[in-house]
Amino acid sequence: MEKNMLEGMQKAEVLVEALPYIQRFNRKIVVVKYGGSAMVDETLKKQVIQDVVLLKLVGFKPIIVHGGGKEISRWVGKVGMEPRFVNGLRVTDEPTMEIAEMVLNKVNKSLVQLVNELGVKAVGISGKDGMMLKCEKKYSGGEDIGFVGNIVEVNPKVIYDLLEKDFLPIICPIGFDENFLSYNINADDAACAIARAVNAEKLAFLTDVEGVYRDFEDKDSLISEMSITEAQTFVDGGGLGGGMLPKLQNCIDAINNGVSRVHILDGRIPHSLLLEIFTNKGIGTAILKDGAERFYRAAEADA
After folding, report:
1. 270-275 long-range CB contacts below 8 Å, 24 or more apart?
2. What angle do CA 56, 275, 168 make, to 5 degrees?
3. How confident is the model at residue 297 (pLDDT cuts 50, 70, 90)?
4. pTM passes above 0.70
5. Burial class of 5 by CB neighbour count within 10 A (0 to 12, 13 to 18, 19+)
6. Which 3 state secondary structure label does DSSP give 177?
7. HSE (CB half, 13 Å, CA atoms) of 70?
8. From CA 114, how far away is CA 118, in angstroms rounded?
């Protein structure tokens, strides 16, 4: 009996700790960029979807923007083609673009199904729906890498329509150009552009890293919160790994364009999204406007 009472009290404490965050972000838009290992591992995938559904059910307005690079590479290999990358960007010729669009739409509908199974209505769309993501050709160091898009315009009307009707939008990063040709878009770029366009309160990146470190070799140097000025110093300093550099720049751009807070989370940790948003300490790195309230400051001072 005492054990059951203790467990019940611990659960109550967790809920009470979450209360101010639920109040603060009630009816606010949260964009979740979903990719990396959390998309490949079926258990992690279900946990991520559970997290997003919970956000929806406690009053948030979540939007999922997902990638699918590993799955695209797998299918490119299946048909006997060799995946090619230039400076981290997939070379996307016409056959590869056809595969990418097919795979991303397949991934998209599988995520819709997972959300629906938990009792929340989801709608899967791409950046072509509602003419949402207009692109121009993106070059890599001056080299033409095919149908890879750089977003030039976001029309969020279809997203607002879905949110208003209480649907959870799940978006795959396929856009179109002025000739209505399809383009593959980096999912990080798509998530940032969408978050800016809808004035999201939060943008969360689920990645394969724990967050931003002052010294990557020192795992105790994880930064819980940093201002965009501090983030820009990291970018300008040139000490970041190749994958983190564009991600951090995307975070800075998002905040400079109206997003209140950006979170970089390790999607390999079960329920990392809930731990970051609803607990006082958090587990990843949050980037915020200069002078904004720091939720974790007191916790760090006590550490």
Report:
1. 270/43, 270/44, 270/47, 271/47, 271/50, 271/51, 272/51, 272/206, 273/32, 273/48, 273/51, 273/52, 273/55, 273/204, 273/206, 274/51, 274/54
2. 20
3. very low
4. yes
5. exposed
6. coil
7. 10
8. 7
Task: List strands edge to edge, sheet with 29-34.
Answer: 122-126, 168-172, 61-66, 29-34, 202-207, 261-266, 285-288, 225-227
Measured distance between the N- and C-terminal CA atoms of the chain, rounded to whole angstroms:
34
What would the pLDDT profile of 58-67 be if each residue is shown by its tens digit? 999 999 999 9
Beta bridge partners of 287: 226, 262
Of 63, 72, 77, 87, the closest CA to residue 39 belongs to 72
Dmax over Cα atoms in the chain, in whole Å? 69
Q: Which helix (H) or strand (E) holds 122?
A: strand 122-126
Query: What is the residue type of 193?
Result: A
Residues, the chain, total?
Answer: 303
**pLDDT tens-digit profile of 19-32?**
888 888 889 999 99
The CA-atom distances, in angstroms, between 268 and each of 115, 212, 259 are: 19, 15, 25
Which residue type occupies 157?
Answer: K
* CA–CA gap between residue 183 and residue 220 (Å, rounded): 41
- The stretches of the chain forming alpha helices (DSSP H) are 2-25, 37-40, 42-57, 69-78, 94-117, 157-164, 187-197, 228-237, 244-256, 272-278, 297-302
Of 243, 251, 242, 190, give the one whose Cα is nearest residue 33. Answer: 190
From residue 163, give the alpha-carbon distance in Å to each of 126, 158, 254.
Answer: 16, 9, 21
Residue 264 tokens read as 């970089």
